[in-house]
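Structure tokens please, single chain.
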Amino acid sequence: MSRRALILMYHIVDHPRAADEAKYCCTPERFARQMAWLAEHHTPVSLDALLHWLETGEGPADPVAVTFDDGFAVTCENALPVLERLKIPATMFLVADRIGADNDWMHQRGRPRRRLMDLAQIRAMEAAGVTMGSHTLTHPRLPECPPERKAREIADSRKRLEDQLGHAVEHFAYPYGLYDDQALELVRTAGYRSACSTRSGFNNPRVDRYQLRRIEVFGSDRLWQFRNKLRFGTNDDHWTLPLRYYAGRLRARLGG
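Here you go.
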């Protein structure tokens, strides 16, 4: 059995409202096609099931987990019906202090203001099988935070979400994919079971559970690019990827 697992990362499932957010917007039509292909050719699993697979080897070969960052309301509106219809579990990483508010960390940099899910929408997603995780309190760049704030962003976000949702919150994702050694240790001591980075690649049983790799799905990704990302475990979506991949393997064999 192959020993590798993939985690997909989405942000906004909607049509872009400005050119500078297009990279982070997967249109509902493309998302539906991607999830249909995923359900047909792979076994989508929850993040909990993926961790169990990494720890025990029990479960389907080549599992794939779907994750969303930030908690955009349009994800509930546009992605949830697809996930429900295809019975695909997923994980949503929430910015704990911004529930029911907006993406101020993006709007301050000139990107469109977008509404984030409120508690009613979060509970609707949970009822449909979506797991909630933490994405800090305010979405800062953790390596740039003083130690005291860094600890609050990581630990207090978990407690706040648990108080609001009424159950344990066990998974974390680093905003912007940025972290340092102190952030890693704070995530561990805060009691999370795992943390997701934005580094691309497959996950195998040797991976650090607090530096899980994810494949980012860009708004421009066509279905063939999506398929290649899953096949080769990389964010590289250029059409030459298969040629370069197999040429590299051939060179390695000849060199050996």
